[in-house]
Amino acid sequence: MTNDLHARAETLIAKDRVEGISAAEHEWLSQHLRECTQCADSANAMQQALRSLRTLSVSVPRELAARTQFRVRLRAHELQAREPRWRLIWAMCGASWVAGAATAPYVWHGLEWIGHRTGMPDLLWKMGFGVWWALPAIVAAAILLMEGGERRPARTAGGGA
Amino acid sequence: MADDAKTLVQGLRQRDPELLDRLIEQYQYRLFRYLLYITGNTERAEDFFQETWIRVLERGHQYDGKFKFESWLFTIARNLVIDWQRQKKAVSLDSMTDPEEGRGFEIVDEKAESPLDLFLQAESQERVQASLQQLSAPYREVLLLRFQEEMQLDEIARIQATPISTVKSRLYRGLEALKGLLAAGGAA
User: Fold this and answer.
1) Dihedral sign, CA of A57, B118, B53, B79?
2) Taking CB atoms and an 8 Å cutoff, what residues of chain A touch B140?
3) Domain B2-183 carries which CATH code?
4) What is the ipTM of this complex?
5) pTM of the entire structure?
6) Is the confidence at residue B187, as pLDDT, over 50?
7) B 112-151 residues with CB below 8 A of A?
8) Domain ranges for chain B
9) pLDDT per residue as tens digits for the range A31-56
10) Alpha-carbon gap, residue B132 to B40, rounded angstroms
């Protein structure tokens, strides 16, 4: 028997466990294992290794599930408490956008008038209009950033270890 | 099955506490075992276990039911461990995930005895445990996911964020190494 045959058998033994082998390969391997003690031992070693791996067990610490359920419920309550606040913020942003869109021409003319009356450069009052338009988004972004800042230091995974 | 997935997606989206309680119960053993193997420390595994479920609660809306829930769950757990490792040691992600770069987050002997000693009773288990400890983390992880969790290659690839070919190669090498270690008596 050549070394190539043994190498092929070794490859198929592993392949069978990892990704599966075809019926023809299976047939060839079975035949080879019947004839070659060395490869049969190797197949048994693989079988034994996997059996050992599957029999490994761990004990889950007592109350871990209960403690986790408690923490999860607590966090759910926190999140729930924030929801009405968020709905209000989004509603206010929405209303602000609608009002902004509806009054945009008047605000433009108003700022233009103030700009001319005060001798302000055109660019300045036009920029003022831009800021006025973006104000709801800026406020929303600021709130989001503050929320993010509040959330972050709450707990780092594994930090207690 | 499709209905189950739909119920799960909907429940997670709504942060249904009853559903989450059930999931925690259902997956406690598998998730804890996975975390224990990849962190190598009981207390840390407990912390990550809790943190994983908090993430599930917070990001439940991101689960779309296209893949198995356990894949998503294990991915969250794994990412938490990797983030923590990054913060703690400022080690590069590559060094933890690429077996060629080093041993990665191996089971550390922090209490004068191996953490798994606390759990493993039988002699044969101790031998396997000793052998597993000698494997690098990515090999240990794929072996666990494939042969204990009985996950498909594509599921493992998704969890590890690596191509299937990498998963296969890690499995082949991991199996070969485990076989060799067990044959040599594990802790040899």
Assistant:
1) negative
2) none
3) 1.20.140.160
4) 0.75
5) 0.69
6) no
7) 116, 118-120, 122, 124-125, 127-129, 132, 143-144, 146-148
8) 2-183
9) 999 999 989 988 888 888 888 788 77
10) 11
